[in-house]
Amino acid sequence: MTQLSSTSTCAVDQRLPLLQMILVSFQHVLLMYGGAVAVPLIIGEAVGLSREDIAFLITADLLVAGIATLVQSLGIGPMGIRMPVMMGASFAAVGSMVAMAGSPGIGLPGIFGATIAAGFFGMLIAPFMSRIVHFFPPLVTGTVITAIGLSLFPVALNWAGGGSAATEFGGLQYLAIAALVLGSILLINRFLRGFWVNVSVLIGMLIGYVVAGGLGMVDLSGLEQSAWVAVVKPMHFGMPEFHLAPILSMCLVVVIIFVESTGMFLALGKVIGKEITPEMLRRGLMCDAGASFFAGFFNTFTHSSFAQNIGLVQMTGVRSRYVTAAAGCLLIGLSLLPKAAYLVASIPPAVLGGAGIAMFGMVAATGIKILQEADIADRRNQLLVAVSIGMGLAPIVRPEFFAHMPLWLEPITHSGIALATISAVLLNLLFNILGGPERAALLNPHPHH
């Protein structure tokens, strides 16, 4: 055990040769870039921002993701788990933020205010999170992450059909581009290996972008006017505004993010052969919350660790936290280049749709994988998953389902993720935690394993 610990410590603290460090860190950036820019793209479109403002949201997101990745990898004071972790805007908050974007009088300032308040709330509860972690066994976590993937799926289909602004939604040209992107991703995963598989989403999007450009679907007007270099200004969209319902909704999202991050940190610990202590977990969650608090002032959203990068650590065998720290520096560099962000903002929705079907589907698949760790053969647990996912899909299948509920509940009743989480936690409490010792023994018949 001592040998494993010292070996893994060496691997985590290893400094690679400069060229190798840059190449491997760039791979991390490529892998998380699509996911990192997806959240500002979704929210920017939901709020109805111009392309210039969406480009600004993306650069702001890259800046905060880069700083948060540096802190998480290297550690500053009580923050940062000091492991190879990439940070970025969390998908968990998208449902709630889209609901806020559609609520009168909230908009971006209300979303940023809720993000700041939720980040502060996260810093307060981070030290206690390890104590309440038994409310979130794999059964609950897996159900929630599955619900996240399913609730994001309509966004992917909206993109694939040409997006909200499409003159002919579902036109064959949009469907063809989306199919080309998805087909490219699937073929790369079938016939190629290693690095190519890791960047298959980006390659698929690049192919789709080039073909869409050839068909005249890419609008680059205004690219020449955008600056080569610009610094992200805090509170670009005005002073943050604080409204109770959005704050409560985002505080719930932070709890969900903590649950996801806890699972990801534990998974990463297994990959690199390092035991995750409660103190390490607290530092990691403090960084998640601190990044979200900071993000609200810098025009972006709640942040969390990225699961796909943990898979990259496993595949490459490169466990050094200095690699992800270098990747954080690359992200900060990209945030200073508005032209690069403008190019990303010009990606047609149909291109994003093809990638989104794969990306959001993978989120759901991750949840299903986590559910395999639970006793899913048990009838009560099946009922928990069924009802919770059903609750999560209610506002997506019929958005008007909760139309007669109080208005202040809207950010929660319009968020499938929030409903699925509340349902899963309460049903797990009813069925399993309050089920008594006999029930606990039934659920965990081999405690020594």
UniProtKB/TrEMBL annotation:
Bilayer-crossing regions: 21-42, 54-71, 83-102, 108-128, 135-157, 169-188, 195-218, 247-273, 322-344, 350-371, 383-403, 415-434
Location(s) in or outside the cell: Cell membrane
Residues in coiled coil: none
Membrane topology qualifier: Multi-pass membrane protein
InterPro entries, sorted: NCS2, UacT-like, Xan_ur_permease
UniProt entry keywords in alphabetical sequence: Cell membrane, Membrane, Transmembrane, Transmembrane helix, Transport
Pfam families registered for this protein in UniProt: Xan_ur_permease (PF00860)
Family to which this protein belongs: Belongs to the nucleobase:cation symporter-2 (NCS2) (TC 2.A.40) family.
The protein's name: Nucleobase:cation symporter-2 family protein
